[in-house]
Specification:
Largest sheet: 7 strands, mixed
Number of helices: 0
Distance between the termini: 37 Å
Helix content: under 10%
C-alpha cells in the first residue's frame, strides 16, 4: 500500500488549496479513503472521508468548507479546502485504514 500526498503550500487566511493523494498497491475503487491532519505539537485530527460509493462525511469543524472527492480511474483522492484559517496549519495526511502517506505541509499565514 502506498499513498503519496501533494498540493500543500503557503496560503493566506481565507484562501483555498486542493490536496491530492495518489494511491497504489490495493484496490482503490472499493476502499474508503480518509484525510487527517496534525498541527505542530498536537494530536492527529480526523478531517473526513469518502466511501467507495462516493458518499462523504466530515468533522463538524470542516463541514461546508472542505470537500473530499475521488477519481477511481486515476486512483486519486482529493481534499478541496476553502476559507482556510491560520489554526489549520498542519501536515495533512491521506489514510486508508491504519496506513497513511508521508503527508503534505499546509501553512496558512499572511
Amino acid at each position: 500500500v502506498q499513498l503519496v500526498e501533494s498540493g500543500g503550500g503557503l496560503v493566506q487566511p481565507g484562501g483555498s488549496l486542493r490536496l491530492s493523494c495518489a494511491a497504489s498497491g490495493f484496490t482503490f475503487s472499493t476502499s474508503t479513503m480518509t484525510w487527517a491532519r496534525q498541527a505542530p505539537g498536537k494530536a492527529l485530527e480526523w478531517v473526513g472521508g469518502i466511501r467507495s460509493d462516493g458518499t462523504t462525511y466530515y468533522s463538524d469543524s470542516m463541514k461546508g468548507r472542505f470537500t473530499i472527492s475521488r477519481d477511481n480511474a486515476k486512483n486519486t483522492v482529493y481534499l478541496q479546502m476553502n476559507s482556510l484559517k491560520p489554526e489549520e496549519t498542519a501536515v495533512y495526511y491521506c489514510t486508508r485504514g491504519l496506513v497513511r502517506g508521508q503527508g503534505t505541509q499546509v501553512t496558512v499565514s499572511s
